[in-house]
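Query structure, 185 tokens:
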């Protein structure tokens, strides 16, 4: 309820930022000065009928008058195991860029090379990762990173007898191709 009490003060602040008087805004919004004054002071309950013409004249959205609650920055998404690969999401589902901690276990069957739109960035946290990129056969060690155009045929697996833990970053297309199209492993 405190949120609604602050709405009037925010409305007043926006009006004053524009150097408008109560008369200026009330006239433009088609309401009485006393109604606007009571609304700004919190003595009148805000309603859509009152707020819509005011926000239109001020060039703002009603949401702009409401204090945004700070969003919890933590990501609460469960890891998923697909075959011998465990994928821990590090970003929210709605993020434009997707980051994952992926564990490739050495017993993983090799998948066919794939191509798709986008770019991929990866960083090896532990173990060794075999990266087949076109004609190149690379083994990345802990602390090494790679960036590549995903239109180049590519595939990855743990090199050696230990799992490889990798941070991978994709756009939404890359995330969908890498993590959803191979669920039968």
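Result returned for the query:
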């Amino acid at each position: 309820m405190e949120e609604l009490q602050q709405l009037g003060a925010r409305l007043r602040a926006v009006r004053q930022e524009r150097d408008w008087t109560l008369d200026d805004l009330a006239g433009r919004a088609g309401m009485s000065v006393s109604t606007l004054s009571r609304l700004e002071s919190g003595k009148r309950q805000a309603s859509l009928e009152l707020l819509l013409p005011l926000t239109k004249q001020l060039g703002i959205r009603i949401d702009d008058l409401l204090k945004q609650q700070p969003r919890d920055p933590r990501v609460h998404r469960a890891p998923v195991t697909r075959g011998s690969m465990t994928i821990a999401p590090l970003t929210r589902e709605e993020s434009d860029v997707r980051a994952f901690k992926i564990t490739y276990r050495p017993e993983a069957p090799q998948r066919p090379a794939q191509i798709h739109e986008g770019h991929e960035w990866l960083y090896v946290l532990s173990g060794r990762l075999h990266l087949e990129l076109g004609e190149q056969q690379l083994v990345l060690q802990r602390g090494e990173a790679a960036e590549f155009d995903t239109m180049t045929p590519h595939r990855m697996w743990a090199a050696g007898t230990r799992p490889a833990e990798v941070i991978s970053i994709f756009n939404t297309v890359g995330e969908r191709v890498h993590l959803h199209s191979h669920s039968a492993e």
